[in-house]
Amino acid sequence: MTAHTYAYEDPILTLNGVSITLNNEQILRDINAQVLNVTRPNMSQGQVVGFYGRSGIGKSVLCRIMAGLIAPGTGTVEVGLAQQPVTPGMVGFVQQRYPLFDHRTLHDNLLVAAQRKHAPADARQHVDAYLERFGLAPHRRKYPALLSGGQRQRAAIAQQLLCSDHLILLDEPFSGLDVAMIDEVKRIIVEVTTMDELNTVIIVSHDIVTTTALADRLWLLGYEHDAAGALVPGATISPQHQYNLAEMGLAWHENVEAEPEFAQFVEHIKNEIRGS
Ligand SMILES: Nc1ncnc2c1ncn2[C@@H]1O[C@H](COP(=O)(O)OP(=O)(O)OP(=O)(O)O)[C@@H](O)[C@H]1O
Ligand SMILES: [Mg+2]
């Protein structure tokens, strides 16, 4: 087990008292959580948050709130060093099913995204660079229907990186991928988060081992019980379910999956999820 030297600076994402009720059902309750810019000597170290919770508990709903696509009933989401209230387009969001425009080629799909942030000539250059980096250049003229699941996945990640600032949400990025493709998406995530100090990726996943290995912070969305032992409606991320993997000496290890402390921690997390 190796602990790396690191420090924390300004907040990049702040969730303040976020609650939401949908169809008269309280889904999320009073969520308070923050991602700080983590720095390491002589490198650009972005942030990776693993975000877990039982199926149907509200992870995708919270993603939509963090992306500014739906407003919480109460509470605020602030993003970036300026800590501005989130609005649509500020945060990249690769949804559980990654939508691309079916009537545009892969290249043109990415160009539409890039032009939201860059001038036309720059946009083309960025698209070419991302097509190369994500191994998609040979498929640039294909329409989305002709792409494999993994290719669509990488295209959707590239698309969000091209048009958003530093924060990107990946909802279930590993589901439906083969082992080689999972390794590839893992590499892309590491690359994205070491490309720029401020780049921050939040990964929603049921693949606890893969995601924990990439993360420096974990959030676990679950229910709490009141003093009488009754379940409190609305899921939340309680302080004891916000884990700092850097502090635990489990962040940024090349082959952390092989370490006994990692295996023990993953077991602990799985038990917490089962009990939540
Ligand atoms: N627009 C909506 N209107 C009403 N209820 C909704 C809406 N969207 C989601 N829900 C409900 O909110 C709850 C949380 O859904 P959500 O999709 O966030 O779960 P999840 O944690 O992402 O689950 P999974 O791991 O299966 O993807 C579910 O009970 C769902 O039915
Ligand atoms: Mg979901």
UniProtKB/TrEMBL annotation:
Keywords: ATP-binding, Nucleotide-binding, Transport
SUPFAM superfamilies reported in the protein's UniProt record: P-loop containing nucleoside triphosphate hydrolases
Family matches, as Pfam families: ABC_tran
Keyword Transport: yes
Example of a GO MF term: ATP binding
Signal peptide coordinates: none
Domain of life: Bacteria
ABC transporter domain sequence ranges: 13-248
Name of the protein described by the UniProt record: ABC transporter ATP-binding protein
